Amino acid sequence: MQKSTQELLKTLQSKQDIRSYLEENQKELLSNSLPQLLEELLQQKQLTKAKVIERANLDRVYAYQIFSGMRSPSRDKLLQLCLGMKTTVEEAQQLLHAAGQAPLYPRDKRDSILLFAFHQQISVIEVNSLLADLEEKLLS
């Protein structure tokens, strides 16, 4: 991906034919499902599902169902997986988008704490401790 979202939007608005837009910008469009993106990240980061699930502090069966696409995770469960994979903020945002969940929003107090956690690469347990200290809902 090289074009900004704003650039894509301007290009889209200038086109009279959606097919030409899609053809010209094929490499810029998100096309992978959540399970595909999770699998790609596992490979890139050289992680195993078992290790990520342990770090994410998730039920093993439930997490494997997310990886296989049998279950759609809640926003919090997906964030736990992201923390378990030690994703970047951008990777987490992409996974949230693929799952149809709201992105992390820095004007929201709880989301700000979570964004901080991603930048600091802290564990789910540490994140929940921080959320509790700051009187915010824990990842559950």
From TrEMBL:
Q: Which domain of life is it from?
A: Bacteria
An example Gene Ontology molecular-function term = DNA binding
HTH cro/C1-type domain: residues covered: 38-92
InterPro entries with a match to the protein in the record: Cro/C1-type_HTH, Lambda_DNA-bd_dom_sf
- What SUPFAM superfamilies does this protein's entry cite? lambda repressor-like DNA-binding domains
In Swiss-Prot or TrEMBL terms, this protein is called HTH cro/C1-type domain-containing protein
Q: Identify the species of origin.
A: [Clostridium] methylpentosum DSM 5476
